[in-house]
Amino acid sequence: MPTETLAQRLRLAGLLGVGLLIALTLLNLMQAAAGLRKDNERSLHHAEAMIDGAIDDSQTLLDAASPLIGRACKENTLALRDLIIASPYARALYVLEGNRLLCTTLHRPLQEQNLPHYLFGKQDLILASHSPITGQTAILYRKQVGGRTLLAELDGFHIFGALRAVKGEENLFFILGDKALDGYGRTQSAAPLLADRGNLIVNLSDEHPYRLVALNGYRQILAFAWDYNRDTLLVTPVLALLLGLLTFHLSGRGGSPRRELARALAAREFVPYLQPVMDSDGQLRGCEVLMRWRHPEQGMIAPNQFIPLAEECGYIVPMTRQLMEQTLEHLRTVADRLPPNFHVAVNVCAQHFKSQEIVSECRAFLDALPGQDIRLVLELTEREMLECDEQTLAIFDALDRLGVLVAIDDFGTGHSSLSYLQKFHVDIIKIDRSFIMGIQEEGPSRLIVENILDLARRMEVALVAEGVETRDQVEMVRRYGIDYQQGFFFAKPLPPGDFSRHFLPHP
Ligand code: G
Ligand code: G
Ligand code: MN
After folding, report:
1. Does residue 299 sit within a domain?
2. CA-349 nearest atom, ligand 1
3. What is the pTM of this model?
4. Which of 140, 149, 465, 504 could cross-link to 126 by cystine, CB 3.0-4.6 Å?
5. What is the domain-level CATH number for residue 276?
6. Sign of the CA dihedral running 223, 228, 231, 236
């Protein structure tokens, strides 16, 4: 018995699949965010060490050059050039006095008008986008010695090369003053970078007045996830799809039958079918209400497949209530076409006699058809014997006062048929179809029927022959003087609409 309808199964499968997709992707991104932060911090640290090394070298260079610059340019140029050659980072030295360039370690003279203004500023460390020597990015380190100024120029490559060396060309920046240098050697304004503080990791150098920043926003996190967790990202939708399919498949196999019954009860899937009961003249005298389960996927399910479980779970009482409500709904629409003294038989079981509810339900049923000549019959099977206690007897009394009749179903097949007759007030006996089947031949079936007939007459109990299938059986039952007949000869149990169309006079 499948537990869910198709729509419910699809919804569940979709929910779980999408849930897994979201959960795994989020987990992945959280991991990527943590990984990127750690990666960035380590990269910044390494780059800082390399950059400090280069700037420190310039500092040492200037310290070594300081004693030389008091002399005239001609006298110190060679010594200064030696210092430049010995440095792994520096390209050139400049000696300034006031606004004048006194000398450089270059071999060619620099045109005064080509000199950038920052040379004559006050900054200790300068990020220059166009070096006077190479025209490319450079860092200049300044030292004041007496009235003169010493500047060491080191190639920008030693800075952006460091960003590149730690694989930070995409998202690490060297910031000095209001300028930023990226790992490709390009300079840009620092302000837009620093605007989004929340998505940055900033590292201030302990030794020099520059900062390194790493971008740590969602775009970088996504790129990091794609670079390092690509497999997981690609596998996640496949896993989600598999989970969805598995859920769909497993939910189709059904959960506990008990839950399934509860669901069907809530969905009002238990519906009445009506089978006519005729008198010996072949006139309609009543009907038996038989339960069918209109399952959304499996179609109509016969009661023997679910009634035993429903009795076991205690659902049979609310199921029968629904059945009576639906039967009532139909009967109200055809009330004026029903024959007089119309009997409506409902199957009940021992559980119904555990509470007074059955009495109020019968009363409600009859009250809902005021002025109608309708008889309600409760059919009791022998499957479960009723306890003959005070409560049960009180219920029987109350039903009797309401005019509700009691029938014993499948009479003769159980162990307690006769006890019922002995202990309770019974109005009708329904002779089981197994006896009716053998009624035409001499033999035990016929003897049993004759016996039941005798018993019923003496106890003034009405008789219904069940399972009448052939004209011969109808004839035989009539000859025996059995009051009522029910069986496929007249009709199978029918949907209420069909029942009324076939058996009630047309409006
Ligand atoms: O209609 P059908 O022949 O499939 O019914 C099979 C059995 O199910 C019969 O024994 C009948 O008594 C039982 N049954 C049908 N409807 C109900 C019902 O509403 N309540 C109970 N308790 N048994 C029912
Ligand atoms: O146990 P109970 O009498 O409630 O069972 C009635 C059931 O018996 C009905 O649901 C119906 O399907 C079945 N039934 C009714 N008439 C006939 C019949 O003529 N032949 C057979 N084989 N079954 C019948
Ligand atoms: Mn019955």
Report:
1. yes
2. 22
3. 0.59
4. 140
5. 3.20.20.450
6. negative
For ligand 2, atom 21, name the residue with the nearest CA.
467
Burial class of 28 by CB neighbour count within 10 A (0 to 12, 13 to 18, 19+): middle
What residue owns the CA closest to ligand 1's atom 23? Answer: 347
- Domain end marker among 105, 139, 157: 157
Residue 184 lies in a domain: no
Q: Which domain holds residue 363?
A: 266-503
Beta-sheet pairing, 342-348 with 284-295: parallel
The pLDDT value given to residue 131: 86
Q: Tens digits of per-residue pLDDT, 76-103?
A: 889 999 999 999 999 999 999 988 888 8
State if residue 466 touches ligand 2 by the CB under 6 angstroms criterion: yes
Contacts of 479 (CB under 8 A, 6+ apart): none
Instruction: Please report which ligand is nearest the Cα atom of 307.
Output: 1
Residue at a domain's end among 104, 136, 157: 157
Q: If residue 367 lies in a helix (H) or strand (E), which one and from where to where? A: helix 357-367
pLDDT average, residue stretch 350-359: 92
Q: What is the pLDDT of residue 376?
A: 97
Buried b (16+ CB within 10 A) or exposed e, 333-371: ebbeebeeebbbbbbbbbbbbeeeebbebbbebbeebee
Render pLDDT for 296-338 as a digit per residue (tens, 0 to 9): 888 999 999 999 999 988 899 999 999 999 999 999 999 999 9
Contact status, residue 289 vs residue 325, Cβ threshold 8 Å: no
State if residue 302 touches ligand 1 by the CB under 6 angstroms criterion: yes
Is the minimum distance from the CB of 347 to ligand 2 under 6 angstroms? yes
pLDDT digits (tens, 9 = 90+) for 268-287: 999 999 999 999 999 999 99
The residue behind tokens 């590149």 is: 164
CATH number at residue 102: 3.30.450.20
Kindly tell me if the per-residue pLDDT of 381 is higher than 90: no
Q: Is the distance from the beta carbon of residue 410 to the nearest atom of ligand 2 less than 6 Å?
A: yes
How high is the pLDDT of residue 327? 97
